[in-house]
């Protein structure tokens, strides 16, 4: 088999791929732990959390990062106890050796840079700036949907459009109603490690929702109720200032 040497760009991409997956010392240990238990069917997030004294969501983040890079495979299993039908994920090595096949993601570099830049600012100023960036980007996204200033959307229609736009950008979002309040629930955080290390980045999410809604419907208030980087299972952005009975 004739294998051509990597170009400088390809080599840099390969290095970035490995750094992204294994640059965190804990993640390297988690990979080795999963590798040790490969013949036992792999490991679960709960097992990794217990072994390394991590929050289950943090353990799951590391495992999903390794799986996203192709270093671990994910298998869905169900509990063996009677009545325990809830499926669980087991992670096991995808190959006996580490292979470099994941292309570089330039947005990872920019997100890391954003996180470090925000960490140099006072918390209040960093959060304000992150939200302002999100608002501006949200308005750009809304404009790309083809709506004009005269276009009228109901609040629910606008909220679902926001969820679809967020999903297209990696948030895995949907709109739902709870306790007389409509909100956006995001099941994935595309900012990855940068948001876990600098949770202030979550203000970007809130700003994006606020910016898109202001362009598609009108001014509303948004509040980040929970977030994955803070250890929650999902990110939830609540929307207030709208009467649900009139829409």
Give an overview of the whole structure.
The chain is of the alpha+beta class and 247 residues long. The chain folds into two domains: 86 residues, Arc Repressor Mutant, subunit A; 141 residues, Trafficking protein particle complex subunit 3 (Muramoyl-pentapeptide Carboxypeptidase, domain 2, 2-Layer Sandwich). The chain contains nine helices and six strands; from the N terminus they run ααααββαααββααββ. The strands form two sheets. A four-stranded antiparallel beta sheet has the order 3-4-6-5, with helices on one face. Strands 1-2 form a two-stranded antiparallel ribbon. About 3% of the residues have low confidence.
* Mean pLDDT metric: 77
Helical/strand content category = alpha+beta
Report the sheet-strand fraction.
Answer: 15-25%
- Alpha-carbon distance between the two ends: 64 Å
Number of strands: 6
* Helicity, as a percent range: 40-55%
Query: Which class of the largest domain in CATH terms?
Result: Alpha Beta
What does the radius of gyration come to? 21 Å
Q: Could you say how many structural domains there are in total?
A: 2
pLDDT below 50 for ≥5 consecutive residues: which ranges? 98-104
Order of helices and strands: HHHHEEHHHEEHHEE
Oligomer: single chain
**What summary fits the major beta sheet?**
4 strands, antiparallel
* Alpha plus pi helix count: 9
What is the fold-level CATH name, i.e. the topology of the largest domain?
A: Muramoyl-pentapeptide Carboxypeptidase, domain 2
In CATH terms, what is the architecture of the largest domain? 2-Layer Sandwich
Global geometry = globular
Q: Quick one: CATH superfamily of the largest domain?
A: Trafficking protein particle complex subunit 3
Strands of the biggest beta sheet: in what spatial order? 3-4-6-5
